[in-house]
Amino acid sequence: MNATLDTDAARRPVTRRTFDDVLVPTYAPAAMVPVCAAGLDVWDQDGKRYLDFTSGIATLGLGHCNPAVVAALTRQANTLWHVGNGYTNEPVLRLASALTAATFADRAFFCNSGAEANEAALKLARKYAHEAFGAHKSRIVSCHASFHGRTLFTVSVGGQAKYTEGFAPLPPGISHIHYNDIASAREAITDDVAAVIVEPIQGEGGVVPGDAAFLQALRDLCDGTGALLVFDEVQSGMGRTGALYDYMNVGVTPDILTSAKALGNGYPIGAMLTTDRIGRHFSAGSHGTTYGGNPLAATVALSVLEQIDRPAFLARVRTAGAALMANLERLAADYPQLFARPRGKGLLLGLPLAHGYRGRSKDFTKAAEQLGLMLLIAGPDVVRLAPALVVSDDQIAQADRIMRRAANALLAAR
């Protein structure tokens, strides 16, 4: 039966209920609907103001509607939006030059998301291994509780059963080791491994920092077997841990690095960075994407990079992270029945729930949201804080006050 186009549908008032009526239910969004924002402040449809300590899941490193990013996007929107990948463009060449100058990499590939960046990294790793060693070298090693995206390949690599349930058969040739477990890595990383992919700090898996010794062991094992080491810095990158990328903090250099989220400050862009030696195995036509590296995305990302990759900016991230961590440590000490010891790095921090409240991280974030503070979870047992990197001392103090009120509310409701 043919439906008649309702030209007025997009003009009718929308509410949270509209989500349930017209969108595929892959998410369970909050009851409030944000409508405008600036910096770390968000207002909903009712005009209520919130302090945003989620930054769009560690994406809005420079905060909502950053003036310099808005200006860059506006200029480019009036210049050149898109060309097919039979052409290049000036903004993407500038961005690639800046990223390679700032990192270990010689080459960049641009796409639209972290999942696509990881997909490209894993495809490149297998192609490199097949051409350099033979088709027998194809296995991918990842960590339990990791997260690398939602494509069928990357979600299988992630190693969390809750994300792969119902999608079998899953891609073969993937193994998982225990995070921060060197013995587990030694057992798994043998001569048939094409790549080892790891988050230097697990985000979705509970905000767990990687031990420097573990990450160095992965580097050594890859060097010994000819495997490539891939760092997934989709969440930890772009200043989030107080360095441009966290590999710079731990002193372990990967062969391939993936970046997204804060690279575009909310504008969709992903990047895969690698060396000449490896990158040349992606020849013309071997991989691609329609929108990847388009002028709009590249212009936004370059504006973001130029603001974040400054010593004074990154030093402030480290200072703000230390202040936020100190508040969380005091909060955990004052509410031992509710919280365990916090963990994380820079402005990517996790607050685990104590034994009696495990499984209730969402209850705590809902209580905080009612009081005007937006927080994340990292699984059912960990509250995650990832404010914009431009967070002020006053905003850190405000978040602490609201979290204490939320803690009291949760305890009173038990």
From TrEMBL:
Record-listed N6-(pyridoxal phosphate)lysine modification sites: 261
This protein's UniProt keywords: Amino-acid biosynthesis, Aminotransferase, Arginine biosynthesis, Cytoplasm, Pyridoxal phosphate, Transferase
GO biological process entries: L-arginine biosynthetic process
Residues where pyridoxal 5'-phosphate binds: 114-115, 147, 232-235, 290
GO cellular component assignments: cytoplasm
Cleavable signal peptide: none
Matches recorded under CDD domains: OAT_like
Needed cofactors: pyridoxal 5'-phosphate
Record-stated family: Belongs to the class-III pyridoxal-phosphate-dependent aminotransferase family. ArgD subfamily.
Identification of the protein by name: Acetylornithine aminotransferase
Name of encoding gene: argD
